[in-house]
Amino acid sequence: RPPPPRITLVEPANGSVVSGPFALVFETPATMTRDSTGWLAEGRYHLHATVGQAELMAGAADVDSLGGGRWRWNIPGLPPGEHRMRLQWSGPDHRTLREGGSAPFQLLVR
């Protein structure tokens, strides 16, 4: 099997300060489709994000296409403080895949 497609964070920049609900804009060459549980790439990889030790899964209404392989994931908000995050894929069993994810990034939530 080929490895999962790469996810690249476009914005916010590493080290940015965000508040309240905010958006993560990312790029992927994958074909993304929405189903009742969330978003799939290539029909099999689920979009997730790690936030520290927690994990978020993009719900069906949380992601918008911006065209050209760019997507916006609307995050409802995180507790104030510094957060280390990473966008990643999980398999059909929702286990995190090591390949294809974005580089880790830091955000300061106010």
Descriptive overview:
There is one protein chain. By secondary structure, this protein is an all-beta fold. The protein has no helices and eleven strands. The strands form two sheets. Strands 2, 4, 5, 6, 7, 10 and 11 form a seven-stranded mixed sheet that branches. It has a four-stranded antiparallel sheet with strand order 1-3-9-8, with no helix packed on it. β8 and β9 form a beta hairpin.
Structural topology:
Elements: E1 8-11, E2 16-18, E3 22-27, E4 32-35, E5 38-41, E6 45-51, E7 54-57, E8 63-67, E9 70-75, E10 81-90, E11 105-109
Parallel strand pairs: 2-11
Antiparallel strand pairs: 1-3, 3-9, 4-5, 5-6, 6-7, 6-10, 8-9, 10-11
Put the structure in a nutshell.
The protein has 110 residues and is mainly β. Helix content is 0%, strand content 53%.
Termini Cα gap:
42 Å
Q: Strand tally, please?
A: 11
What's the helix count?
0
- Overall geometry comes to globular
Give start-end ranges of low-pLDDT stretches: none
Structural class: mainly beta
Q: Over the alpha carbons, how many angstroms does the gyration radius reach?
A: 13 Å
- Biggest sheet, in brief? 7 strands, mixed
Share of residues in helices: under 10%
Secondary-structure element series = EEEEEEEEEEE
Q: What value does the average pLDDT take?
A: 94
Strand content: over 45%
